[in-house]
Design brief:
- There is one protein chain.
- The chain is built from four helices and no strands.
- The radius of gyration is 13 Å and the shape is globular.
- The two termini are 16 Å apart.
- The chain has one domain.
- The protein is mainly alpha-helical.
- One of its GO terms (cellular component) is mitochondrial membrane.
- Its main location: membrane.
Length: 101
């Protein structure tokens, strides 16, 4: 069973890093987007191969939830921190429920 949501999440993370680079010239956004997007992609691949293997995806989602959640609470801006926080919450719930099963 392919983890479509995990792959979409990883793609959005990479695209977000690219957009941060294009809009603000932030090389750090680009680098973080590539690293975290790739890690989320690996997590989606692992979850696709073995449905119970969600640790990588869960870990990436938790880290992004914490980092972007703090940014969102400080800035109050939905884009991009609020959106990534919301998506990360959904992925934590999804992977967490799969881990419990």
């Amino acid at each position: 069973m392919t983890d479509i949501y995990g792959y979409c999440y990883s793609t959005l993370i990479v695209l977000g890093g690219f957009m941060g680079y294009m809009k603000a010239g932030s090389q750090m956004s680009l680098l973080a987007g590539i690293i975290f997007g790739a890690a989320a992609g690996v997590g989606a691949y692992k979850a696709s191969q073995e449905p119970g293997s969600v640790i990588i995806g869960l870990g990436v989602s938790l880290v992004l939830l914490l980092v972007m959640g703090l940014r969102f609470s400080k800035s109050g801006k939905f884009m991009p921190a609020g959106l990534v926080t919301l998506l990360s919450v959904l992925m934590v719930i999804r992977y967490g429920s799969r881990l419990i099963k």
